[in-house]
Amino acid sequence: MSDQATFLDAAHDLLGDRGLTSDPDLVEPWLTDWRGRFTGRALALASPATTGEVAALVRLCAQHRVAIVPQGGNSGMSGGATPDPSGAQLVLSLRRMNAIRALDVTGRQVVAEAGVILENLHHAAEAQGLRFPLSLGGKGSATVGGLVSTNAGGTQVLRHGSMRALVLGVEAVLPDGKVFDQLTPLKKDNRGFDLKQLLIGSEGTLGIVTAATLRLVPAVAARAVIWAGLASIGQARELLLHCQEHENEALEGFEVMPGHCLESVVRFLPGAREPLGGKHAWHALIELDASRSDADTLATRAEAMIAAAFERGLIEDATIAASEAQAEALWQLREMVAPAERAAGPAVQHDVSVPLEAVPGFVEAAVEAVEARFPGTRAVAFGHLGDGNIHFHVIAPPGTDGPPWQDGEGKAISRFVHDIVAEWRGSISAEHGIGQLKRDELHRLGDPVALHLMAAVKAALDPHGIMNPGKLL
To answer: Angle 465-470-473 (CA atoms, 0-180°, nearest 5)?
Structure first.
């Protein structure tokens, strides 16, 4: 019997029919990443139901030197949960581990297993008058384990931070099969390294997150959603500072997009219309949120903030949503930017960040440089101005055949964009992770000292290299 067959028999004895399958029809949907850029093969698909099963399976994999590719909702943007083409790697799905173990209303925290879907976590918190303050477009499929492992962000980072700020404790299975249990949160704990932070954002290369204790916040009692037309991205930065000066504690989101981006969304989305009457070079979507204690004054404060912005010449026009339906419609315009740009033609997408104060200069310089260097392309910058995260898409010239262009000029464009990001002392990955998509670029542009430290940690914890090989490092 081959080593692989021996391993599969032992894994089947451990997990049973429901927990392990090599059926191609059942495995195939999990072999391609969400964007369709990477497709691999797998030895099998494992779906353990408990932390104990994960630990026993990892010990078995370590014994047989079988590489593991942890996977949550398979909604990542960088190919970090896709196996390689060898067919020798085990895809380990956490989707069966979907229990909310505890929800402490007074402590405002929840213990959720790795397979809990983000949208279900939202509903569980809302049922108790609380909320988990992180959301993204893939909330219907993204899981807690994947969000922790990639240090996911979203539109609420400005106020609440990324997953790293929301994770209070972690349970994870390490490469030797031992369980790291640090689910109990302590406000003060000076017992050396904060080891959970190694696991957050490590993309499954150091261990498998099986559960997390997460911070909850009071439910939103009232919100004010504002759409503003602006003359420039620089003016958007000034408006952000103005909003922070007036309503810093209530400022939940501050998103920006250029005028032609909004026009693309309106063409793409049935029934959509531009929120303002005239044309504007840039647009800002602003949200202020309030809890019960200050909900009654929010509308008045939002109006005063915008009136003061008009007086200072920071905005050309603005509207405040008069209902929850209007607020959702404004947010839908922002959420449809990426689908609308994809519909416009082949593109290469970049999830980058630069220092907050540098965003306007970076956007203007990068758009001009890319379109000059690659004639016929169109550079589109939009995103989370408040945390310096810009989604920088470059759309191919009309009539371009997508795959050949993406594999040829598209790769050259990405290198060029990343070089500009490095010149502005930014990051080539703001919230989507490195995965396999940006691994080589990280090693080309990353700080050698930081890369050496990451490699040393990886070698110490995973000497046999079985944890998500080929990703990040």
So the answer is: 80
| Tens of pLDDT, residues 188-243 | 888 899 999 999 999 999 999 999 999 999 999 999 999 999 999 999 999 999 99
Task: Tell me, yes or no, whether 473 lies in a domain.
Answer: no
Cβ atoms of residues 83 and 69 within 8 Å: yes
Boundary-marking domain end, from 189, 218, 247:
218
Q: Is residue 460 part of a domain?
A: no
Q: What is the pLDDT of residues 396-407, one digit of tens each?
A: 999 898 889 988
Are residue 213 and residue 229 in the same domain, yes or no? Answer: no
- Nearest Cα residue to 473 out of 439, 437, 422, 450: 439
Predicted local confidence at residue 260, as pLDDT: 92
Q: Residue 2: which pLDDT band, with cuts at 50, 70 and 90?
A: low
| pLDDT at 158 (0 to 100) | 83
Two tokens, residue 405: 């262009």
Residues 214 and 107 grouped into a single domain: yes
Contacts of 76 (CB under 8 A, 6+ apart): 33, 34, 146, 150, 432, 433, 435
C-alpha of 407 from chain center: 24
Question: Of 253, 257, 309, 312, which Cα lies nearest the Cα of 282?
Answer: 257
- pTM for the whole thing? 0.92
CATH of residue 362: 3.30.70.2740
The pairing of strands 222-230 and 282-290 is antiparallel
Same domain, yes or no, for 262 and 211? no
DSSP per residue, 146-183:
HHHHHT---TTHHHH--HHHHEEEEEEE-TTS-EEEE-
pLDDT at position 9: 95
For 191-251, the DSSP string reads: SS--THHHHTTSTTSS-EEEEEEEE-EEPPSEEEEEEEEES-HHHHHHHHHHHHHHHTTTE
Q: What is the CATH number of the domain that holds 33?
A: 3.30.43.10
How far apart are alpha carbons 126 and 135 in whole angstroms? 13
Distant-in-sequence, close-in-space partners of 39: CB < 8 Å, separation ≥ 6: 31, 32, 33, 82, 85
How many independent structural domains does the chain possess? 4
**Structural domain boundaries enclosing 21:** 3-93
Q: How far apart are CA 375 and CA 377, in angstroms?
A: 6
β-sheet bridge partners, residue 230: 282
Strand partners, 288: 224, 251
List all residues 6 or more positions away from 315 whose beta carbon is below 8 Å from its beta carbon. 228, 229, 230, 235, 239, 284, 306, 309
Query: Residue 458: pLDDT band by 50, 70, 90 thresholds?
Result: very high
Residues 259, 331: one domain?
A: yes
